[in-house]
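Question:
Write out your own:
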Amino acid sequence: MSRLIIGAMVRAIGAYPSGWRYPGAHRDPRSDAAALRRAAEVAESARLDYLFFGDWLATGHDLEFRDPYLVARIDPLSAISYLAAFTERIGLIATANTSYADPYTVARATASIDLLSGGRVGLSLVTGAEARAAANHGRDFHAANDTRYDRVVEFEHVLRRLWDSFEDDAIVADAATGVFLDPAKLHATDFHGAHLSVAGPLNVARPVQGHPPLVHAGSSPRSRLFAAQSADLALVAVNGFEQAVAIREELRSLAFESGRDDRTLKVIAPVLPIVGETREHAQSIADELSELVQIAEDWPDGPPAAFPANRSLAQLTQLVGVDVSKLSPDRAVTPALVAGFSAAGQELVEIVAERTGRSPSGERPPTLRHLVVAASVNASMVVGTAVEIAAEFEAWGEAGAVDGFNVLSAVQPAQFEAFARGVVPELQRRGVFPTEYEGETLREHLGLDRPENVHVRSRVSRVTS
């Protein structure tokens, strides 16, 4: 098999809702600088391919309970600019929301950081429209949502034309003749579409990588089509092995049908590993994280108005087919109770047993809280030792389910460092991940060629046609 691509999706206070509550966890966004620098140094020492920074353009009380890491966070372009100064080889991927971002500004920032970092920048293009984000940008939410995929297609096209404003040898800088620029090798963008209009050229030299690698995440048919046609990395959340195989095949087929080399599309799955010294130790960590998650019944008079509606015994009742809404969230889930569960409820019990080691017939049965958390917290968790998790990664890669993984950490820094210092060396021992960086740029880490300048390509096409 080809070697796995392994990156880290950085969430400074942890990717699990209760991760910040775990003993020793980083929990104060005001000190994110130190936490991010520590994570970057650990990731680079492990030879990870990249650090990935997502984004969210609003905040609110509801995020405290649903996704605490979104409440207050560093702007992604600022984060990768900061970390570029403390790292030498690891890739740095930032996110831009094309529903609200300006393509010239994004192209200028990413080209600049790519030049300053020696070619280590990637850019994730997202299309999500959200009412609060729209209001923050003076946009109509419904209009932004209706046109978001049409806009991202134009956005990607404009980015490539802007990045290629200068040909690689456009700057002559001949002191003897006094010629600094070959004007024939500086190109205007001249794009006028339904959603964007950009004159260009960009006032930054062509990036080291030509085009920083593009990333796109999404599950809708339109999103997958855009990823297949335009992205270098497609981030795809999957529910299991068989679904992963099917989605990767679908994306590769769409890429081939669009006229590109389908091998240049890398399909990456997000995963949240819980790493322990033994399997029982890992399960105890997952167990404690579950117990630290708040559910609606923790408030005698009802939860805050912004609390997630699905994190309750009332919602669990609908799923398992047995009325548990009046019971204590800490009520043990016994074999007698499980006997009346629906198929979905039975499956939920199995998921909890795999993650936490708790089973209805065991000495420590799960509680209803465990079931609520497993049903309501969306996380692709793999729980086990470094050897077990590495074996799982290798199996997915060998079967063609994925090209790699975006690793989330439930607790920072402990779980991220357990992965970097435990799982990665085991992947290296198995020969599915390199022990040293094999290239200088992010494109080289990902096995991608440097693209030709789009203006040169179009000029050559006109001449030869």
Observations:
- Residues 294-376 form one domain.
- The chain has a mean pLDDT of 95.
